[in-house]
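Team,

Forwarding the record for the chain on the shared tracking sheet. I've put the sequence and predicted structure together so nobody has to dig through attachments.
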Amino acid sequence: MARACFAVLLLLGLAGQAYCRVPSPYSASSNDACGTCKVAVRLMGDMMCDPYVDDTLAKWMVDNICSNFDEKEQCSDLVLGLTPALVQWLRVNADPDTLCSGMGVCPAAALQAQVQPRHSSKPNDVTCPLCMYVASKLKEQVNNPVTQADIRDASLAACAALPEGMMRDACTDFVEQYGEQWKGSSPAAGQQQQQQQQQLLMMCGCASV
């Protein structure tokens, strides 16, 4: 099953949940699809503030989508592997004008008028969500003292949790590329490790501290 198809299904599932929250004056107006789209994307952005949104979305996909496939286990594995990266990407890129224009719901002029995204210099669109995904996995261990070597190992383990193929390879390449920057540090814990994760996000170019 194509990973791209599942990424689209995940996005549609999240968009559907957001659309259900759109106030009735918007959702009832078929003449204002652009406005409805923007409201839905804003609500989707609000949903991204929920730290458990990826778990909620993954469960919804497994229960409502994967249950209809013959290869349910493979479907579930793909959903669980792709959801964190998709959610992290949306947390950075959930801009109503850009997304709705890009989908053709709003006039293209609205997209052209936008200031270039602050991370447009990134040559590979998959790098940012992968970096954010790795950082989020490392944050789960924020209370455990680790060395920089442990950070690299934990990052590679996070990459290994992704489905085989382009995303796992890109994630592994990213960790190997920046591995040299993680060498030579003493063990850190608590607030010090939080600062390390903030620095990692800055290095990703995906989020500001």
